[in-house]
Amino acid sequence: GAGYEAGGSVIHPLNLHMKHFVKELGLSVAPPQGSLAGVYNGEEFVFEESSWSFINLLKLLWHYGLNPLRMSMWVEDILDKFMRIYRFQMHDYAFSSNERLLHALGGDDFTRLLNQTIDEAMQQAGFSQKFINQVVCPAMRVNYGQGVTIPGFVGAVSLAGVQSGLWSVKGGNKLVCSGLIYSAKAEVIPGTVVSIEPKTRHKRGGDPVNLYEVTYNTSSGLTGDTYDIVIIAAPLGRKMANITFRNFDPPIPEFLNPYHQTITTLVHGRLNTSFFGYQDPQAFHLGAIFTTDNPKLFINSLGVVS
Questions:
Q1: Helix (H, G, I), strand (E, B), or coil: what is residue 272?
Q2: Rounded Cα distance, 260 and 237, in Å
Q3: Which Gene Ontology terms of cellular component type are present (predicted)?
Q4: Buried b / exposed e across 23-42, counting CB within 10 Å, b at 16+?
Q5: Measuring CA to CA, how many Å separate 79 from each of 153, 163, 185, 237, 272?
Q6: Of 53, 103, 217, 305, whose CB is crowded by the most CB atoms within 10 A?
């Protein structure tokens, strides 16, 4: 059957790591799939894209003035500062908290974005409420299944996803992951991590070595091993990863913040265009439908994948 990537399916042109991995692994870039988009508010389309870029420009100016251009510049400024992260990584520089990392990248502007919503941040930056409701909110809904009450920094970075130049890997972005595992000759253990505990090993005539004992559950039962470094790439809530951190000093606190679940459903069939006010399916040319914040709507977005 056919394979479809429903999450993390596009890559930003400033993602230098992915560019490097694709080149090193000898993978190819897939040609972008162009489809027209529209924004639906539950009653009508407040914006419909045209196949003519000149007409789109006029539509954007008519509906939102210079807000789209200003947003592009605003997001570009944030990304330019965020790009400093590559310099820190090049020199193996690490930070003890997200706040310190973001402050090093963008100063008080970045840390302020952590403590306000994207709605508040963009209103403060002078964007119109109409533009936020009809352009920014649909972008948040398609990315996160949430509105403009999400944190400002998350929202600002996700707006990079509406810029041009997005790309993907031919055959699927998953080929980068499998290719890196293979080239690194990494041992993949299919199991569930149960607990992590720091251990100290004393070497004869040398300084003590700090290690981590990882206990995990496999099809063979409970087992474990010791590691120099442990990197956790999983949601740290009890209902998600459910990892117990034993005997850490200071203790690692419980991660109580709940995660928002976003569901992607792949459906084989034809779109009922009359739902969107188009009685003639032949007259409907949109391949992506975004939505504004409307409690009556039961979808966040729709997109044709093949």
A1: coil
A2: 12
A3: lysosome
A4: eeeebeeeeeeeeebbbbbe
A5: 11, 12, 33, 29, 39
A6: 103
Report d(CA 55, CA 65) in Å as an integer: 14
- Cis peptide leading into residue 250 (ω within 30°): yes
Exposure string over 153-171, b if 16+ CB within 10 A, otherwise e: bbbbbbbbebeeeebbbee
Q: Beta-strand (E) ranges in 176-242?
A: 192-201, 209-218, 221-227
Rounded distance between C-alpha atoms, residue 136 and residue 265, angstroms: 23
pLDDT tens profile 169-196: 999 999 999 999 999 999 999 999 999 9
Helices vs strands, H then E, count in the chain: 10, 10
What is the rounded CA–CA span in Å between residue 25 and residue 174?
12
* Residue tagged 């039962």 (tokens): 221
Confirm whether pTM is higher than 0.85. yes
- Strand duo 192-201 + 244-245: pairing: parallel
pLDDT of residue 92: 94
Confidence of residue 101 (pLDDT cuts 50, 70, 90): very high
Give the sheet arrangement for strand 221-227, strand by strand.
221-227, 209-218, 192-201, 244-245
Please state, in angstroms and rounded to a whole number, the distance separating the CA atoms of residues 273 and 281. 6
State CA 81 to chain mean position distance: 18
For 21-28, what is the mean pLDDT?
97
